[in-house]
Amino acid sequence: MSNRRVLVIGIDGGTWKVLDRAVEGGHMPFLADLLARGQRAVLRSTLPANTAAAWTAFQTGLPPVESGIYDFQRWDRQSPRGELISSGNLPKTVWEVAGEHGRRVGVLNLPLTYPPFELNGFMVSGFTTPGMEAGWTWPPELKGQLLEAVPDYRIVVKDDVNIYRPVRDLEMTLRFMGDLLEKRAAASEYLIGRFQPDLFMVHFHATDFLQHCGWYYLDPEHALYEPERGAEVLSRFYGQLDGALRRVVEAFRVAGPRPFPLLVVSDHGFQAHTRTFYLGNWLRENRLSFTGRPRRAAHWLAKWTLRALRTLDVFRLRRVLLPRRARDRAVPIARGRPGRVIYSGGMEDFARGCANEAYLFLNSGTKRLRKEAERMLKALRDLRDAETGARVVKAVHRVPADSTGRGMPDFIVEPAAGYAINGPFRRNKPVFETVDPHEHYQVGKHAPEGIFLAVDSQTDYPAEVGIERMAGILLDELGVPAEGLGELVRRRGVMSESEQAAVRSSLEELGYA
Ligand SMILES: [Zn+2]
Questions:
Q1: In this predicted structure, what is the pLDDT of residue 362?
Q2: Superfamily of the domain at 6-268+448-509
Q3: Which of 36, 72, 236, 273 has its CA 20 to 30 A from that of 431?
Q4: How far, in Å, is the centroid of ligand 1 from the Cα of 50?
Q5: pLDDT beyond 60 at 293
C-alpha cells in the first residue's frame, strides 16, 4: 500500500487577479515562496461556475450534467420551488474512495458536506450547515472536542451572514473575515495534530464572502474601485490568509515524516459586475405577452374567476380551490392585458438561479409555443441593455436532454462581462438594476477561471486544469486508484424541515437563492 500523504487547501473564489497583486505587494510572502517552488495553473470551473456545482465536481469527479448538482438547490420544470441539496445527494467522493483503500482522511469545512458522513477519519461540515447547534462533525463527539480546542470556532451559518453584508463598516467586515481565517487555521492545526490524516483538506470560505461584498476594493477594473481601502484589504485580509496557509502547511509537515505534495485550489474565480439583469422580470414582460391568437373565452373566464376568488380571499378560498401551481400561473393571467395573455394550459416557463448564471425551465408543450420559446431564446441572446447599449448575455447553453431528468434546467444563461443575472421574478424590481455596494451584498461575481497550484508534486500539470479532474488528481497523488469515484451511493444524510428553512434563509441573505 502506498504511504503517500497529500495536503489540499481550498480557497473559495480564489483568483490570481487578486493573489498576484497581494504577492507583488509583499503581503503574501509564504504564497510567494510556494509559487516559486510550484506549478501554477488556471483552474477551469464548472458551468455554472457556482460554489455548490464546483465543489461537487471537485469531490466526485462529476460535472453538473452528470451529478445533477448545479447549485445549492435543484428544480425541475414542474416545481419552481427547489429541493435543497445536502451531502445525501453527493455521489461517491474522493474522501470515501481514499478511505476504502485504508487511507486516513480529514475534511474541514468543505461546502455541501452537511450532514457530515462517515469516513475513515473525520469530517467537519462547511456551508450549508444550518446552525452551530447542529451536529456538524463526524464522528459526532468531535464537535465538542473541537470547540474545546478552538473556542468560538465557527462555520458561516444563518446568523452570521447579516454581519458583513453589504460592507457598511469595513473594519468590522475585515475583523469578521480575518477571524474566520484564524479559527480555521487553528482547527486545522488541532485536527492534523490529533488525527494525522494521510489526505487532509481545509476549505477557506472567507475569501468568497469578502470578494462578493468587497470586490470594488480589489479589482482596479471595477467602476467603483477604491484604491486606498483596497490596499488595506490586500495587506490585512490577504496577509492573514497567507499566515493561515503557512500554519496549515507547517502543521501537516510536523505531523508526518515524509515530504508531501501540496495542492492549493479554488472552485471559481471572480470578476466585476455593475449591473444586474432580472431574467424573470424580463420573461414576464416578454414571454408572457404572446402575440398569438388569444383564447378569449378561457382568458375571460380565468380572469373573472380569479377576481371573484380574490374578493373572497378572506375565506382563503383561492388557496383552497386552486392548487399551488395554478395559483402561481394565475398571477399573470389576472394581470395581463386582454388579448395579449397566454394561457398555455401548463406551467409557465420560469427562471431560477441567482448572482451568476441563471437557469431556464421551459414548459412549452405545443408546437406553436415551442416556436415562441425559440423566439424568446433568440431575443435573450441578442438582448442589449437600453441604458448602456451593452450586450447582456454571453451565451445561452442548451443542456443535454438526457440530463434534464436529474433536475437540470433546459438552458443555462451565462451573463456577459459586467452583468450578473437573477433568475426568479422579483416583485418591485426592474429588468435592469445598477449595483450599489452600500445596498447590495454582491458587487463582484464568480468567473470561470480559478486557481491551481501544485507544490512538491512529481506530476506535470497542464496550464489549465478542469475542476472535475481534481478528485482523480488527489487520488493519483495519494497513490490510490479512482475506483468507484462518482458512483451513486446511499447516504443517510438528510436535513430536517427546520434545518432546510435555516439554510434557505442564509442562501437568500447571501443572494444565492
Ligand atoms: Zn465559491
A1: 83
A2: Alkaline Phosphatase, subunit A (3.40.720.10)
A3: 72
A4: 6
A5: no
